Amino acid sequence: MLKTQGRRGEVAIEVHSDVPDRFSQGMKLWALEEGGSRRELQIEELWPHKGHLVLKFAGVGSISDAETLVGCELQVPATERAALEPGWNYVSDLIGCIVFSGDREVGTIRNVQFGAGEAPLLIVSAPPKEYEIPYAEAYLQSVDLKNRRIQMLLPEGMLEVNSPLTAEEKREQEGRKR
Fold first, then answer.
1. Distance CA 110, CA 27 (A)
2. What CATH number corresponds to the domain at position 31?
3. Which of 58, 75, 77, 107 is the most buried (most CB within 10 A)?
4. What is the mean pLDDT of residues 146-166?
């Protein structure tokens, strides 16, 4: 959830669903906090506002109540999910999958970011590094959710380009600037 909206506990959300009218009055959702805890919520009212959707939840009646929800990810219960077309996946199903490129294990998907371009970015953890890999059809070979495995064919050098510098690499770079 992006921010509080209004004085009665409303929150503005960014919708990442291609399902028309995904949310409805009376629908129950899960609010997932960064720490992993979940809270069940029920939509009391909803309306579009400036490119976002504003939700008013039952039992959330003030700005301070709504502030506790900012930053949470809303999840639709699995039983409420719409059937997807072949080749489409829910973001929550991708988290925790292991990404492979050829025979190389790249790492584990810990998040998916939207808005950086045409394709969402897989945030892949491979301690001490983390990679940002476009979840693009051009690189995707197969998705096996049952075995938590995503097979990609990444261009040579892509992982090096999309890897943030480690603390040691930053120190080396600073030393070269002096």
1. 27
2. 2.40.30.60
3. 107
4. 83
Domain count, the chain: 2
Q: Looking at 79, 108, 138, which one is the last position of a domain?
A: 79
What's the mean pLDDT in 121-146?
91
Q: What is the pTM of this model?
A: 0.61
Q: Is 175 helix (H, G, I), strand (E, B) or coil?
A: helix
The first and second tokens of residue 20, run together, are: 């028309």
Output the domain CATH number for residue 139: 2.30.30.240
Write out the E strands in the chain: 3-4, 11-13, 28-32, 38-49, 52-57, 73-75, 98-101, 104-113, 121-126, 129-134, 140-144, 149-152
Query: Distance between CA 148 and CA 153 in Å, rounded?
Result: 17
pLDDT in tens, 63-88: 999 999 998 888 888 777 777 777 77
What pLDDT sits at residue 163?
59
User: Residue 10 belongs to what domain range?
Assistant: 3-79
The pLDDT of residue 18 is above 90: no
Question: How many angstroms separate the CA atoms of 107 and 133, rounded?
Answer: 11
| Same domain assignment for residues 71 and 100 | no
